[in-house]
Amino acid sequence: MIWRLTIGSLAARALTVFMTIIAIALSVALFLTVDKIRTGAKASFTDTISGTDLIVGARSGSVQLLLYSVFRIGNATNNVSWDSYSKIASRPEIDWIVPISLGDSHRQFRVMGTTTDFFEYYKYRQSKSLEFTNGAVMADLYDTVIGADVASSLGYSIGDPIIVSHGIASFSDHDDQPFRVHGILAKTGTPVDRTVILSLEAIEAIHVDWQSGGKTSNHTTPAEQIRQMELRPKSITAALLGVKSKLQIFSLQRAINQYNDEPLLAILPGLALQELWSIIGIAEMALVWVSWMVILTALIGMSATICSSLNERRREMAIFRSVGARPRFILFLFMTESMFMAVSGILIGVAIVYSGLFVAQPILDNMFGIWVPITMISKAELFALFGVLGAAALVSLLPALMAYRLSLADGMVVKT
Amino acid sequence: MPPFLYMQDVAFQWNDDTQFRLQIADFAVEQGETVLILGDSGAGKSTLLSLICGVVAPNSGVVSIAGVDVAKLNDAQRDSFRAEHIGVIFQQFNLLPFGTVLDNVRLPLKFSAKRKQRAQTSPDDATQLCQALGLPLDILKQRASKLSVGQQQRVAVARALIGQPPLVIADEPTSALDSSNQSAFLKLLFNQIKNCQTTLIMVSHDTQLARYFDRTVKLDDVAHRAGVIS
User: Fold this and answer.
1) Closest chain B CA to residue A318
2) In 3D, which of A222, A199, A217, A57 has the Cα closest to residue A141?
3) CB 3.0-4.6 Å disulfide test: which of A4, A7, A43, A186 passes with A131?
4) CA dist A315 to A321, B52, B90, B149, B177, Å?
5) Which residues of A325-349 are buried (b: 16+ CB within 10 A; e: fewer)?
6) What residues of B are in contact with residue A329 (Cβ under 8 Å)?
7) Which domain does B174 fall in, by range?
8) Where is pLDDT greater, at A111 or B119?
9) Which CATH number goes with the domain that contains B159?
């Protein structure tokens, strides 16, 4: 019966109670959303490249190598000679190796030269392979495969011509050798979406008449002639590789790092991604703190509403006291009330998050490449929710104690 | 045998109020007696009732009810003593508006096992009581806030009487009613308490009510006070 009376008392103040519960629900939803997107973003980020055991490039920093080879941010300070690449490629530990060559661009997108092996071995999000929405892997020297963002923002479809510019943000185009879109990749949420992929030979081909950033003469070697040439690159930017046995990763890494003929660097992509995330991760902590503050605000709001209702409820307290309820019972009554609001708020908040996630999951994946898995509430989240409950108990102690003191002072004298 | 209720050499002062001081040298009520205490507002009626109900303890003296010196009990004991022995009727609007009629009537049973036991021996005491007090059966499940003032007062009486507490305290219960309703209300109340030998103490400023009671006492005759209660 007391439970029913508590509900009745809350129902009598339905509007404020409802708004309080909604405030708590939204704050909890915000917190959980931030948490889920944060872990989702982190997972998507660290899943940008998977299945690759080592990335090899010219010696620099591991984050820098990761940035230009995987994220296409910044430039390589140096190249890896084809000679060194071949030597590494022929080592017995190597299962597969894919060279990549960067440096040119198309509009705002980077151009990457590689082999068709790239489509087989580049994996993201655990073990997902690149997929084509249209077309296929380049078959001709002048074929390109473009990422989903390239296709959508430039409105390209299969067969459209592409002119590659020399360098990045440059005004000199390789307009003598136009390319064709031959394949369009599905959205991956990785930098591949923003990449124009050519064959390694094509990169050589467009530079036949070029030397150190400029066209050597006005003479343009005709395409037919270029096709006859041996288009072996002198150097590449980096290489992705997989080893036959995971046990060999570290010994191979050491061997590459100690390579005598040329200063090289081999990095473990997972480790470098973690390192990079720890730099970006400061922002995520700020978000978490903000969402905690929002929860606290909602709880203080709840406490304030209960406090402001105290005066109107002195009669209710006097009635309870007159039938023999102890002041402690009044304390219990008020605590029950706030706990009820907090629990309802939390449950509704969780419901909002999960139903929202259901709707938003494909949208987030398509638009931002953030894959937020719909998982059960994690232990950490559950812990946090109990924390919210504890905080609710703490802040509602104030109005409850005030009610306790009031009922002690008033007794059964009905005031107001 | 000592009287059912007696107060002797009682002195009381509210904690935060040094001006007001209530003293009762000697005041006694026999079991089954109905007593009207007359006093103007500010005469210390609320304080007297608070002392009898054990909401406050006197600074000194004896407040004995049914052989128990309430003044010697601690706070929690006084609360459960009140739950068990005393039914209280306030002036008006003294129901929980969001509870049903039955919720309100049964409320004291939550706090007193003995009264609950007594209420359960006769089949559905609450319903019977409401019927005897002239409340139609179909409103028992209704919210108390939907009732008329007269009906609310009857529910308040039912709440005070349920589980047959030996003492009923009424604080100006008729002040909100017109005179015809007043007498009807008092008749119902007296019918009920006569049946169970309940002692009734009512405070009021209305001398007209004296005719219904066994005895009328002027508060000024029993209580000496200093200062004025606000």
Assistant:
1) B94
2) A199
3) A186
4) 10, 20, 10, 16, 20
5) bbbebbbbbbbbbbebbbbbbbebb
6) 111
7) 5-226
8) A111
9) 3.40.50.300
CA-to-CA distance for B63 and B10, rounded, in angstroms? 7
Task: Please state the domain count of chain B.
Answer: 1
Q: Is A326 close to B76, i.e. CB distance below 8 A? A: yes
pLDDT tens digits for range A135-190: 999 988 899 999 999 999 999 999 999 988 887 766 677 777 889 999 999 988 88
For the cut 50, the answer to whether the pLDDT of residue A344 exceeds it is yes
Mean pLDDT of chain B: 85
> What are the pLDDT digits (tens) for A199-233?
999 888 888 777 665 666 666 777 777 777 777 88
CB of A80 within 8 A of CB of A238?
A: yes
Is residue A303's pLDDT more than 50?
A: yes
Q: Judged by CB atoms within 8 Å, which residues 1-40 of B form the interface with A?
A: none
Per-residue pLDDT at A76 exceeds 60:
yes
Residues of A in contact with B49 (CB under 8 A): 412
A326/B99 CB distance under 8 A: no
Q: How far apart are CA B210 and CA B194, in angstroms?
A: 17
Burial class (CB in 10 A: 0-12, 13-18, 19+), A204: buried
Instruction: For residue B111, give the nearest of A4, A324, A413 by CB distance.
Output: A324
Q: What is the pLDDT of residue A47?
A: 80
pLDDT digits (tens, 9 = 90+) for B166-184: 999 998 888 777 888 888 8
Helix, strand, or coil here: A245?
A: coil
The shortest CB-CB distance from B103 to any of A4, A318, A322 is to A4
Strand ranges (E), chain B: 5-12, 21-29, 34-38, 60-65, 68-69, 86-89, 167-171, 199-204, 215-218, 223-226
A312 touches chain B (CB under 8 A): no
Q: How confident is the model at residue B226 (pLDDT cuts 50, 70, 90)?
A: low
Residues in A touching B96 (Cβ below 8 Å) = 5, 8-9, 316, 319
- Give the nearest chain A residue to B53 (CA atoms): A322
Q: Is B113 on the interface with A (CB under 8 A)?
A: no
Q: How many CB atoms lie within 10 A of CB A222?
A: 10
Look-up of token digits 């179909």: B138
- Give residue limits of the domains in chain A: 2-45+283-410, 54-267
Candidates B46, B93, B103; nearest CB to A5: B103
ipTM of the complex: 0.88
* DSSP class of A315: H
pLDDT digits (tens, 9 = 90+) for A3-24: 888 888 888 888 999 999 999 9
**Chain B residues inside the 8 Å CB shell of A316:** 96
Tens of pLDDT along A370-385?
777 788 888 888 999 9
Looking at the complex, report in whole angstroms how far the Cα of residue B156 sits from the nearest Cα belonging to chain A: 10
Among A11, A324, A414, whose Cβ lies nearest the Cβ of B98? A11
